[in-house]
Amino acid sequence: MTRTKRSHLKNTLKESFRMAVDALKANKLRSILTLLGIAIGVFSVIGVMTAIRTMESSITEGLNVFGTNTFLIQKYPVIQVGHRDGKYRNRQNISYNQYQELKERSTLPKLVTVIDGTGGISIKYKDKKTKGVYLNGGGVGSLRTLNAFIGDGRDITQQDVDNYRRVAIIAMDAVDQLFPFEDPLGKSISINGIDFNVIGVLERVGELFGQSQDNYVLIPITNYLQRFADQRSSLSITIEAQSVELYDKTMDEAIGVLRAIRKVEPGAENDFEVSSNAELIETFSGFTAGIKLFAFAVSVIALVVAGIGIMNIMLVSVTERIKEIGIRKAIGATRRDIITQFLSEAVFLSEFGGIVGVLLGLAGGNLVAMLLHVPAQIPIDWAIIGLVVCSVIGIGFGIYPAYKAAKLDPIDALRYE
Fold it and tell me: What is the mean pLDDT of residues 135-142?
């Protein structure tokens, strides 16, 4: 392309854009209604995708509770939709004896630990009392299952577990409620009327989806089972492999040992669930995939309807501006110039509506993040996809009106009243 042609094309596009803006300004209400259709379509997909991306990011981080190279064994699946299946409910509970035997017979794991918990426990210190604090029973390494770290004091030791010591590690919700102005270490708290000595305080984690992650107290599993558990309690066992390379072998060994302990028949499926970070994230992704597909389908329908609106407004615009088109042709405007002008109007409508929709979608999606107290996300890829789709809509639905305008005979156009 020669410099003269490039300059002509540049001037044509610039002039077409200016005329498109002037034409849209002259019909503000009609243009706004058309923009609204595009904006709603883009808003629906960007808003949903932003909210889902935000949730996925937080879920990925929140489900990463087992730590590196670790997996969880328990009676029920970690994520279960709807009513509990009878096959899970009818399984035998995972007992403390089974946990101990698994720990003794396993040779590959770096760590084998256990945890269980219950609510509705009253925890007091002097005249103060907790509200909604959960009680967990655990052993050495159980804090890995809770994705928690000691901020002050010490962790539970094997001696604490073996000797049924009445010691407790408290998370920050309990600290805030029981010890707002005191150091909790060494203090005696009462759990359902039984005294426990505070040996550790956990680092604050914060909230996930509006729920506090610091609302619990941890005591030795032996004390928990003796004083607070009931016959329905089934323990959760967390196992950590020594390395990534040994992860699969460690899992296979643990499954085999536990099947033998629970006397599962050869060829029968496991009567317990084995969960890992990857499996939990994959399960959640399966849930969100359907939502994404539905949102995309709704958005496509909305954008097609908006595209029809653009075609309608452009056809009306062509009819209203026949004489203007005739004058432009009479003074030398080519078919390409006319097509460029009307396509520019259609694309401008689509893109402006798309930008408004993207901004509203990002705002709406991140509003969800604020309400759920999770970090906000900006899906740049979906924003770009939204704007590209808007361009395609503008060109696709604007080409016919532009072509119709370009075909007008200048003499007939000048005579049009």
Answer: 91
Question: What pTM was computed for the model?
Answer: 0.62
**Do residues 89 and 193 both lie within one domain?**
yes
Which of 371, 364, 398, 372 shows the shortest CA–CA distance to 45? 364
> Is 82 in the same domain as 137?
yes
The per-residue pLDDT for 170 is: 94
Share of the chain above pLDDT 70, in %: 81
Q: How far apart are CA 173 and CA 180, in angstroms?
A: 10
Q: Which of 276, 300, 318 is the last residue of a domain?
A: 276
State residue 109 phi and psi, 5-degree precision.
Answer: -65, 150
Instruction: For residue 88, count CB atoms less than 10 angstroms from its CB and return exposed for 0-12, middle for 13-18, buried for 19 or more.
Output: middle
Q: Which segment of 42-51, 103-112, 254-263 scores lowest on mean pLDDT? A: 42-51
Question: Would you state the pLDDT for residue 19?
Answer: 63
| Distance separating alpha carbons of residues 73 and 263, to the nearest angstrom | 16
Same domain for 111 and 224, yes or no, is: yes
Domain boundary among 220, 247, 276: 276
Structural domain including 111 reads: 70-276
**Same structural domain, 183 and 141:** yes
Scored b (16 or more CB within 10 A) or e, 213-240 reads bbbbbbbbbbbbbebbbeeebbbbbbbb
Cα 379 from Cα 302, distance rounded (Å) = 20
- Among 220, 130, 221, residue whose Cα is nearest residue 171: 130
Enumerate the β-bridge partners of residue 188.
197
Q: How many domains does the chain have?
A: 2
Tokens read off for 289: 């995939």
